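INFO  loader      accepted 1 record
INFO  loader      residues=171
INFO  predictor   begin
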Amino acid sequence: MKNFSFRSVAVVFCGVLLLTLSTVSPVRATGFVSRTSGTAARLLGVSFSNATSGLAVGDEGIIRKTTNGGTSWITSTSGTVAVLNDVFVIPNTNTAYVVGNGGVIRKTIDLGTSWSAQTSGTPAGLLGVAFSNSTNGLAVGDEGVIRKTVDGGSTWRTSVSGTAVVLRDIF
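INFO  predictor   done
INFO  writer      dumping tokens
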């Protein structure tokens, strides 16, 4: 009897899974409906406050906003041309944070009508952001950078990660 490696079994499983999924209607399989963002810019992050209100961010400082579940999107001015890599909207509020290249952090308290620059204290690219509540949040990024706030983004302090590896996201 031939011995199979875990890798060969995993490859066969993935092939069967892909074959199975390719025969299922995408809408029935995922429950998602395709929407247009109204921009040619590459979008890198999206977050919703509730079922209807959300933000998407991406290249050249682009921020797109929806208040109708993604049926239509409008531009929100970020005040930067840096690539914005991630966005986190605090659930059921109008407060959101975006992070980007060059240590960029922006905050809104009106779901993107206006944005204020935050001082991250790092030139490193920030790739992910998340909050556990309205005051406590983390931003992560290049070179193992972790920035922490305990005051709703008024100040961001270093938190040691113990690695120089890129931290791409946080949940």
